[in-house]
Amino acid sequence: MTPSDLALDGAEAITLVTLLLGGLLIVGYALRTGVPPMPTGPGTRAAMLRLLPERIDGTIYDLGSGWGGLAFAAARRYPGNPVVGIELSPLPWLFSRVMLAVFRYPNLSFRRADLMAVPLNDAGAAVCYLMPAIMQRLAPKLDAEARPGTVVVSYSFAFDRWVPDAALMEADAGPLLIYRYTVGRRPVTPAPGASSPAGT
Ligand SMILES: C[S@@+](CC[C@H](N)C(=O)[O-])C[C@H]1O[C@@H](n2cnc3c(N)ncnc32)[C@H](O)[C@@H]1O
Predict the structure, then answer these.
(1) Which of 63, 133, 170, 198 has its CA 20 to 30 A from that of 88?
(2) Residue 16 CA to ligand 1 centre (angstroms)
(3) Are 84 and 74 in contact (CB under 8 A)?
(4) Distance from Cα 149 to the centre of ligand 1, integer Å
(5) Does ligand 1 lie within 6 Å of residue 37's CB atom?
């Protein structure tokens, strides 16, 4: 083997650099958001969608839509509702937009945005697979913006101070729970260390 056998030709070098830059971009955004673009599997998606009501009034959001798989599944299940995937990481977002250009779903759209900056007042439901830190920032946003009755289904991570109205573990979802909450309808547990009402 000679040194020239090991040298990359132009096309190989471009492919390698593209893959490297793509990987760095994905890792960089995962560090920025604190959430990697790990997709839910088909079984988990189906279980999450089963926790949503039969009929939903309003937009269905996938908060952190990653590569788009869960949002596509929601758009198929609810053809009469607008489904919006919100994703900050450029490559997963671009991938989902390309998939949407190929498999056209008239009720589905993807927005490249920070989910914390997107108003949720038109939401009828939201699904998410995030991480504990952003879940705790999302809870007060949903309380402030989402209409009472909006259903939120989260895979794997719970809202610390909200009590879910349902939780299930599916074989396909692995050893992790799926939680369902209803905005305005669920009891809220006191914050740790909060003082109880006078005299109690
Ligand atoms: C674990 S993936 C889930 C993808 C998809 N929902 C699914 O279940 O297949 C979570 C996604 O949330 C995105 N994300 C995290 N924080 C975000 C934020 N503040 N705004 C928009 N997207 C965010 C991440 O970039 C990541 O792609």
Answers:
(1) 170
(2) 26
(3) no
(4) 24
(5) yes
The answer to whether the CB of 62 falls within 8 A of the CB of 45 is no
Domain range list for the chain:
42-182
In sign, the C-alpha dihedral spanning 16, 20, 21, 25 is positive
Query: Which residue reads 């905005």 in tokens?
Result: 183
Find out whether the beta carbon of 88 lies less than 6 Å from any atom of ligand 1.
Answer: yes
The dihedral through the CA atoms of 180, 77, 93, 21 has a sign that is positive
Looking at domain 42-182, which CATH architecture does it have? 3-Layer(aba) Sandwich (3.40)
Side by side, the strands of the sheet bearing 178-182 are 108-112, 83-87, 59-63, 123-128, 151-155, 178-182, 166-168
pLDDT in tens, 96-117: 999 999 999 999 999 999 999 9
Residue listed under structure tokens 């996938």: 62
What is the reported pLDDT for 191?
62
CA of 181 to the centre of ligand 1 (A): 19
Which residue type sits at 43? G
- Kindly report the number of other CB atoms within 10 A of residue 198's CB atom: 5
Give the helix, strand, coil percentages of the chain, each rounded to 5.
Answer: 40, 20, 40
